[in-house]
UniProtKB/TrEMBL annotation:
The chain crosses the membrane at residues 61-81, 101-122. It comes from Apiotrichum porosum. This is Major facilitator superfamily (MFS) profile domain-containing protein. The keyword Transmembrane applies. Keywords: Membrane, Transmembrane, Transmembrane helix.
Length: 124
């Protein structure tokens, strides 16, 4: 389930947002992103279960690690996206890729996709 939601979220970034230049594709992106990527913390309990197996002391620790990693992601997102917005590596590309958001789109899709690859190890 984690892999499916991550792949759908990555596709939502690459296709509707990346290729769209009007508001209609952005609405499709927002709906797809909201239904997939933003639902991942709800799956944490399903991911924690196989990690902890029968040890009743581990779920709190693993949940705390997940929350800490999410916090690190939230704190580092600003500086990373700022640097990515300053690059013009994709100037002239089609759709939103040709804007200053091109590098942010690729970065978001790649990291979300690799989250799905890691999620394959935790079937939920």
């Amino acid at each position: 389930m984690v892999s499916v939601t991550c792949v759908l979220a990555a596709i939502g970034v690459l296709l509707p947002w990346g290729l769209g230049t009007t508001s209609a594709p952005l609405i499709v992106f927002a709906i797809l992103w909201g239904m997939t990527a933003l639902s991942l913390p709800g799956l944490w309990s399903k991911i924690i279960t196989p990690i902890c197996k029968d040890d009743p002391t581990l779920p709190g620790l693993v949940f705390s690690i997940f929350a800490m990693l999410r916090g690190i992601g939230n704190v580092t997102a600003g500086p990373i996206s700022t640097k990515l917005l300053q690059t013009d590596a994709f100037r002239g590309a089609i759709g939103a890729y040709g804007t200053n958001f091109g590098a942010v789109l690729i970065y978001t899709a790649v990291t979300t996709f690799f989250g799905g690859v890691v999620g394959a190890f935790f079937p939920a």
